[in-house]
Write a structure and sequence with these properties.
Shape: elongated
Number of domains: 2
Largest sheet: 4 strands, mixed
Number of strands: 4
Strand order of the largest sheet: 1-2-4-3
Order of helices and strands: EHEHHHHHHEE
Radius of gyration: 24 Å
Distance between the termini: 19 Å
Strand content: 5-15%
Structural class: alpha+beta
Length: 209
């Protein structure tokens, strides 16, 4: 975004949907000014810093971070899957119920540390891990471990996305910088209008010239 691979005055219109805010706004605006034709049309949708939808997204990101950094759900689930597989293939060790109880104990410990209102994503992770463990008759041990690792990887990706969006979301200062940086032939300057959807409130800023 900061170095668009196009010649100057290449476009009659530029449209961005949740993109420009992830770049350096000053450089992005400079590039938009360079590649847009005189009197060209610009329409930008950007993430708002304050909205129930955005706050809910960040809330789930914090829950993902909690699961990754403050629990041993994935480690215990992996150890339990391996222990049960060892018992069922060799007959050595404890009964599967004993190992599953170990996982249940970890779940209880985790849920005791969070409020119910902040546990939605955590409960979903627990339910998925439980499903993987109870489907051992249908899944090989390699598949079980792969699914557990994939779920953990998805949570890591979710945390990264949330952190990126949180940094990029446009507050008042950034919104002002964007509206001032976008070129316009309108003497009144660019418009910044909130787009609202029912109870979700403002889901985007629409900035246009």
């Amino acid at each position: 975004m900061e170095e668009l691979p196009f010649e100057s005055q290449s476009f009659n219109a530029i449209v961005s949907q949740f993109g420009v805010e992830f770049g350096l706004l000053s450089q992005v605006c400079t590039e938009i000014s360079r590649v847009i034709k005189p009197e060209g049309i610009i329409s930008v949708l950007s993430v708002p810093a304050r909205s129930p939808l955005f706050e809910g997204f960040i809330k789930k990101g914090k829950q993902s971070q909690f699961v990754l950094n403050n629990t041993r759900l994935f480690e215990v689930a992996t150890a339990v899957a391996q222990a049960i597989h060892s018992f069922e293939s060799s007959g050595q060790g404890r009964e599967p119920a004993a190992y599953l109880q170990r996982f249940s104990a970890e779940v209880e410990s985790v849920l005791s540390k969070v409020e119910e209102a902040n546990s939605g994503l955590i409960v979903a992770v627990v339910a998925t891990l439980q499903d993987i463990l109870t489907r051992r008759g249908q899944l090989s041990i390699q598949e079980q471990i792969t699914y557990i690792e994939h779920l953990k990887s998805r949570l890591n990706d979710h945390v990264a996305r949330c952190e990126s969006v949180s940094r990029a979301a446009l507050g008042d200062a950034s919104l002002t910088a964007l509206t001032r940086g976008i070129p316009t032939v309108n003497p009144k300057g660019c418009r910044a209008e909130p787009i609202s959807v029912g109870s979700f409130g403002t889901v985007a800023w629409h900035v246009s010239n």
